[in-house]
C-alpha cells in the first residue's frame, strides 16, 4: 500500500516538475556555495571554488593547532610586518603613479591589484586575524582594522577579552534591562565553559556550508517543495473523488490511513536528507572535510555563540533541527490536508510557517514569540549567536536547546492526530 | 446475509435526505429507483459506512455495521456515482492498489486483477493509464474494483449514468452476471436498468420508500390506468396539462399520446398494459419527466 501511496504522489506531473525544480536548486545552490570560497593569488588575481580551497588549505594549515598566546603574538607580528611592507609598497606605487598616470582608470586598477597582493599574504592567518578583531572590538561593533593596532602584549588577554566584552555589553545602553541577573550569569557561564585554547585548522568547507545563508535557504526551499508534494496525500482522495472507494474498502479507515502517513514520512525523510546530505557532500567534497572538530567560535559568524560545539556538531544540530522542523511543518500541512480536504490550504501551511515569521518578527511585540516559530528550526546554524533564552522550571536554556525537544514532542503529539482525523472523515 | 435498516435517518442541517427508512435485504438484486435528490446516494453512502446516520442503525446479520468496521467493509463492493480514480495509474496498478486497500494478499490480488480485467473486457487496456480510458471503460474498471474482494454485498450507485446505449446494455448484462450469490443494491433513475435485472424495486421519494416490491407488484399497485390515443395539436396541449403523459409521438394523423389517468381521457383512447416507466411517472410526476428525457 505504501508503494502505491508514494506512486500516487510521484506520478503527478506537477510533483515531477517540483522535483526537477528541487534538483535544479540543489545544483545551483551547491555551485554558488562552492564559488563563495575565494583565494587571492600572489599576483593579486582572485580564484574561487575547489582550486581556491586547495590554496587556502595549504596556507591556513600552516597555522594548524591550538590558538595559544604565542600563536596570537605571531599573527600580530606577521600582520604588522605585512602592513609595513604594504605601506612601503603603496607609498612607492603612489609616487610612481602620481608622476606617470595620475587619476586614470589604469591607476585605480593597479592600486586594487596591489592591495590584493598585500591581502594575499595575510590569507593564511586571516581567520586568526579576524578572531583578534572580534575579541578586541566591542560586542556587535566589528572593526576590520582592529588587529592592525594590537601589540604583542595584547595576545595574552585574548580569551579574557571575550568574557569581559560580554560583561561590558551587559552594561551598555543597548541591552540594559534586557537580561535578568540569572540570564546574565548563564551567558557568562557559557562563555567561561568554552574550552581554551581553541583548536584551529582550515575549515572553510564547513564554514561555507554552515556560516552562509545557502543552507537555510536550501532547507526552506526543500520544505516548500516537500510541502507541495505531501499536501495532497490526504486531500487528493476527495479532490479526485476517489474518497468513496477508499473509505469503503476494508482498510480504508485503518491501514490505508497509516500508509498515507507513512508515505508522507518517507517522502519528507528521503527528500530532506537526500537534498541536505547531497548538498553537504558536494560542498565538503569540493572544499574539504577538514576542520570539523574546530569550535564554531573560530568562525567569524559564531564568535559570540553560547553553544560550545564544533563545526561537525553544528552541522549535526543544524541538519537534525532542520529535519525536526521540516517534520513538524509537514505534519501541520498534512493535518490541514486531512481535516479540510483542501490541497490548496495545505500547500499554504509551509509558506505561512517558513516565509511569514521573518516579516512578522520585525514587529517589536512579536519578536520574542517569533523566535519559537518552526522556521527557526531551519536556521539553527545562523542562530547560534542569538542570545534568545528561555526559563523552564527556574532553569535557563538557550533557544536551540528548547526548540529541538519542543518540536520533537509537538511532532510526536500531532502526527497521530492525522490518523485520528482522517479515519473519521465522512464522504458527503 | 441479511442487511437491515432500522429507522435510518440522515439530516444535513434542516434538510432530511433520508427519512426513517426500514428495509431488510437478503440475497438478490434490489433496485433503488427515484429521481435525483430522492436520497438514494445518501442511503448508499450510509450503507458503505461513508456517512454516519443521524438516527437509526444499519445491521449486517444483526451487528451494527459501524461497529463492525473493517469486518463489514470486507464484505462490501461499492461503485459510487462519481467514480473517482488516480489518473496517472494504469488500470492494473489501480486495481492492485484497491486490492491492497481491501486487504487482498498480493499474490491473490494479481490473479484476481488479471481475471477481472479480462471479465470486464479491459484486457487490452490493462497497461493504459486510467485518464486515457473512455467513459464506458472507466465504469468497467469501476465494477472490476468493486468485485475484487468477491463481495457479499455489492452496491452500485447509478452505474449506467452517462453511458451510451451499447455500453449501458453491456454493463447491465455484466451486473446481471455478477449478481449471483450476493446482495446487490442498484440505484438508478433509469427505469429500464432496474426493470431488467432487479428482483425487488424500492421507489424512493424525498428520503422515504414510497413503494417496494417486484416490478409486477408495483405495476399492479397503480390505481390509474394507462391509455393510448391519437389527438389533434390543440387536444394534445389540453391533455398534457390535465394528465401525466409518459410518451408523445407526432404522426401523420395527429399526435400519439400515452398517458396515465383514472378515467378514459378521450372516447377513442385504448387501455394499455402499464410498464415500470409508467409507474415511475405515476409516482414521481413532473419531476420524473425531466429524468425520463434521459432514458
UniProtKB/TrEMBL annotation, chain A:
<feature type="transmembrane region" description="Helical">
    <location>
        <begin position="396"/>
        <end position="422"/>
    </location>
</feature>
<feature type="region of interest" description="Disordered">
    <location>
        <begin position="86"/>
        <end position="117"/>
    </location>
</feature>
<feature type="transmembrane region" description="Helical">
    <location>
        <begin position="218"/>
        <end position="240"/>
    </location>
</feature>
<keyword id="KW-1133">Transmembrane helix</keyword>
<keyword id="KW-0472">Membrane</keyword>
<keyword id="KW-0812">Transmembrane</keyword>
<feature type="compositionally biased region" description="Basic and acidic residues">
    <location>
        <begin position="87"/>
        <end position="117"/>
    </location>
</feature>
<feature type="transmembrane region" description="Helical">
    <location>
        <begin position="261"/>
        <end position="282"/>
    </location>
</feature>
<feature type="transmembrane region" description="Helical">
    <location>
        <begin position="343"/>
        <end position="360"/>
    </location>
</feature>
<feature type="transmembrane region" description="Helical">
    <location>
        <begin position="315"/>
        <end position="336"/>
    </location>
</feature>
<protein>
    <submittedName>
        <fullName>ABC transporter permease</fullName>
    </submittedName>
</protein>
TrEMBL record, chain B:
<keyword id="KW-0813">Transport</keyword>
<dbReference type="InterPro" id="IPR003593">
    <property type="entry name" value="AAA+_ATPase"/>
</dbReference>
<protein>
    <submittedName>
        <fullName>ABC transporter ATP-binding protein</fullName>
    </submittedName>
</protein>
<feature type="domain" description="ABC transporter">
    <location>
        <begin position="3"/>
        <end position="231"/>
    </location>
</feature>
<keyword id="KW-0067">ATP-binding</keyword>
<dbReference type="Pfam" id="PF00005">
    <property type="entry name" value="ABC_tran"/>
</dbReference>
<dbReference type="InterPro" id="IPR003439">
    <property type="entry name" value="ABC_transporter-like_ATP-bd"/>
</dbReference>
<dbReference type="InterPro" id="IPR017871">
    <property type="entry name" value="ABC_transporter-like_CS"/>
</dbReference>
<dbReference type="GO" id="GO:0005524">
    <property type="term" value="F:ATP binding"/>
</dbReference>
<keyword id="KW-0547">Nucleotide-binding</keyword>
<comment type="similarity">
    <text>Belongs to the ABC transporter superfamily.</text>
</comment>
Amino acid at each position: 500500500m505504501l508503494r502505491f501511496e508514494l506512486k500516487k504522489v510521484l506520478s503527478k506531473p506537477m510533483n515531477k516538475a517540483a522535483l526537477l525544480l528541487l534538483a535544479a536548486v540543489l545544483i545551483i545552490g551547491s555551485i554558488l556555495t562552492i564559488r563563495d570560497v575565494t583565494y587571492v593569488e600572489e599576483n593579486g588575481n582572485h580564484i574561487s571554488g575547489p582550486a581556491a580551497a586547495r590554496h587556502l588549505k595549504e596556507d591556513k594549515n600552516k597555522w594548524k593547532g591550538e590558538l595559544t598566546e604565542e600563536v596570537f603574538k605571531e599573527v600580530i607580528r606577521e600582520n604588522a610586518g605585512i602592513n609595513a611592507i604594504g605601506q612601503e609598497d603603496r607609498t612607492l606605487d603612489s609616487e610612481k603613479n602620481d608622476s606617470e598616470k595620475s587619476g586614470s582608470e589604469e591607476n585605480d586598477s593597479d592600486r586594487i591589484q596591489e592591495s590584493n597582493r598585500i591581502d594575499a599574504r595575510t590569507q593564511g592567518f586571516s581567520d586568526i586575524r579576524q578572531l583578534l578583531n572580534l575579541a578586541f572590538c566591542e560586542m556587535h561593533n566589528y572593526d576590520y582594522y582592529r588587529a592592525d593596532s594590537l601589540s604583542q602584549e595584547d595576545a595574552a588577554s585574548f580569551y579574557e577579552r571575550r568574557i569581559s566584552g560580554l560583561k561590558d555589553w551587559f552594561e551598555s545602553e543597548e541591552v540594559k534591562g534586557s537580561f535578568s541577573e540569572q540570564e546574565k550569569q548563564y551567558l557568562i557561564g557559557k562563555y567561561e565553559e568554552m574550552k581554551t585554547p581553541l583548536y584551529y585548522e582550515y575549515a572553510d568547507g564547513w564554514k561555507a556550508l554552515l556560516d552562509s545563508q545557502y543552507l537555510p535557504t536550501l532547507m526552506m526551499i526543500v520544505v516548500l517543495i516537500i510541502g507541495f508534494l505531501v499536501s495532497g496525500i490526504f486531500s487528493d482522495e476527495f479532490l479526485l473523488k476517489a474518497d468513496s472507494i477508499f473509505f469503503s474498502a476494508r482498510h480504508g479507515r485503518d491501514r490505508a490511513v497509516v500508509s498515507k502517513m507513512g508515505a508522507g514520512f518517507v517522502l519528507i525523510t528521503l527528500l530532506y536528507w537526500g537534498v541536505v546530505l547531497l548538498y553537504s557532500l558536494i560542498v565538503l567534497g569540493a572544499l574539504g572535510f577538514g576542520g570539523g572538530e574546530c569550535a564554531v567560535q573560530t568562525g567569524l559568524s559564531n564568535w559570540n555563540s553560547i553553544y560550545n560545539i564544533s563545526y561537525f556538531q553544528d552541522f549535526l544540530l543544524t541538519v537534525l533541527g532542520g529535519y525536526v522542523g521540516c517534520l513538524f511543518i509537514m505534519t501541520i500541512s498534512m493535518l490541514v490536508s486531512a481535516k479540510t480536504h483542501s490541497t490548496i490550504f495545505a500547500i499554504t501551511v509551509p509558506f505561512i510557517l517558513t516565509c511569514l515569521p521573518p516579516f512578522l518578527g520585525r514587529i517589536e511585540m512579536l519578536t520574542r514569540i517569533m523566535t519559537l516559530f518552526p522556521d527557526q528550526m531551519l536556521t539553527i546554524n545562523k542562530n547560534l549567536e542569538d542570545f534568545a533564552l528561555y526559563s523552564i522550571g527556574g532553569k535557563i536554556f538557550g533557544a536551540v536547546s528548547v526548540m529541538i525537544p519542543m518540536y520533537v514532542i509537538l511532532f510526536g503529539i500531532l502526527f497521530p492526530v492525522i490518523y485520528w482525523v482522517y479515519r473519521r472523515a465522512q464522504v458527503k | 446475509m441479511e442487511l437491515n435498516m432500522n429507522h435510518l435517518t440522515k439530516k444535513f442541517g434542516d434538510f432530511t435526505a433520508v427519512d426513517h427508512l426500514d428495509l431488510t435485504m437478503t440475497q438478490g438484486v434490489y433496485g433503488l429507483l427515484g429521481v435525483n435528490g430522492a436520497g438514494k446516494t445518501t442511503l448508499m453512502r450510509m450503507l458503505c459506512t461513508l456517512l454516519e446516520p443521524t438516527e437509526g442503525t444499519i445491521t449486517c446479520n444483526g451487528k451494527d455495521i459501524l461497529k463492525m468496521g473493517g469486518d463489514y467493509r470486507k464484505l462490501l463492493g461499492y461503485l459510487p456515482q462519481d467514480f473517482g480514480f488516480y489518473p496517472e495509474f494504469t488500470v492494473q496498478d489501480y486495481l492492485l492498489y484497491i486490492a491492497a486497500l481491501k486487504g487482498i494478499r498480493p499474490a491473490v490480488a494479481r490473479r484476481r486483477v488479471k481475471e477481472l480485467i479480462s471479465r470486464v473486457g479491459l484486457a487490452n487496456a490493462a497497461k493504459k493509464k486510467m485518464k486515457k480510458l473512455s467513459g464506458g471503460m472507466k465504469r468497467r474498471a469501476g465494477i472490476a474494483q468493486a468485485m475484487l474482494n468477491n463481495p457479499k454485498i455489492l452496491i452500485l450507485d447509478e452505474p449506467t449514468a452517462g453511458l451510451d446505449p451499447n455500453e449501458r446494455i453491456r454493463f447491465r448484462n455484466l451486473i446481471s452476471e455478477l449478481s449471483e450469490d450476493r446482495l446487490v443494491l442498484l440505484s438508478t433513475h433509469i427505469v429500464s436498468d432496474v426493470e431488467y435485472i432487479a428482483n425487488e424495486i424500492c421507489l424512493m421519494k424525498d428520503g422515504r420508500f414510497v413503494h417496494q416490491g417486484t416490478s409486477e407488484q408495483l405495476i399492479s399497485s397503480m390505481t390509474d390506468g394507462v391509455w393510448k390515443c391519437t389527438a389533434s395539436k390543440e387536444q394534445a396541449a389540453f391533455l398534457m396539462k390535465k394528465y401525466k403523459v409518459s410518451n408523445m409521438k407526432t404522426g401523420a394523423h395527429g399526435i400519439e399520446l400515452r398517458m396515465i389517468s383514472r378515467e378514459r381521457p378521450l372516447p377513442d383512447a385504448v387501455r394499455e398494459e402499464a410498464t415500470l416507466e409508467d409507474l415511475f411517472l405515476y409516482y414521481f410526476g413532473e419531476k420524473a419527466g425531466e429524468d425520463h428525457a434521459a432514458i
